[in-house]
Amino acid sequence: xxxxxxxxxxxxxxxxxxxxxxxxxxxxxxxxxxxxxxxxxxxxxxxxxxxxxxxxxxxxxxxxxxxxxxxxxxxxxxxxxxxxxxxxxxxxxxxxxxxxxxxxxxxxxxxxxxxxxxxxxxxxxxxxxxxxxxxxxxxxxxxxxxxxxxxxxxxxxxxxxxxxxxxxxxxxxxxxxxxxxxxx
Length: 184
Description:
Low-confidence stretches: none
Keywords: ATP-binding, Ligase, Magnesium, Metal-binding, Nucleotide-binding
Cofactor: Mg(2+)
Number of helices: 4
CATH class: Alpha Beta
Helix content: 25-40%
Mean pLDDT: 94
Distance between the termini: 29 Å
Radius of gyration: 15 Å
Number of domains: 1
Strand content: 15-25%
Order of helices and strands: HHEHEEEEEEEEHEEE
GO molecular function, one term: metal ion binding
Largest sheet: 8 strands, mixed
CATH architecture: 3-Layer(aba) Sandwich
Strand order of the largest sheet: 6-3-2-1-7-10-11-12
InterPro entries: FTHF_cligase, FTHF_cligase-like_sf, NagB/RpiA_transferase-like
Number of strands: 12
Pfam families: 5-FTHF_cyc-lig
Oligomer: single chain
CATH superfamily: NagB/RpiA/CoA transferase-like
């Protein structure tokens, strides 16, 4: 089986686990994320506006926005890294690619903390995303500029024993779930 086929199979299984977790989820994970971010007040960070069955970081992002800039990803095009537009609670948003909502007017920031959505993760910091490589390219570019804390945010049910990863897949520094904070 090719690496792409392995990734497709892993994504399919992880989407099913994530959907089940989403349907029964309690908001506890966002509180855990808020506690983690409180130790980094004022540091520019990027989160995301959730799509489909992604775990929702918006309450933690709103809290963090009272202390410093918070951005959300804006896709620039296939094969390009993400840029992050400053976000604030209740600001006007527009539809972006893949159904993600983004600020009506872009004001770019460079985050030092990136809250990363994912499909699956493992206990070694591996992350499986949607397959476009956007976060891998973005984290690689940000890390070339200086230290960046990449925080995966997921339901505990999204954990996989092992993921089919390739050399270009960027590792996470930690994972926050409703059950645990896992550091690497």
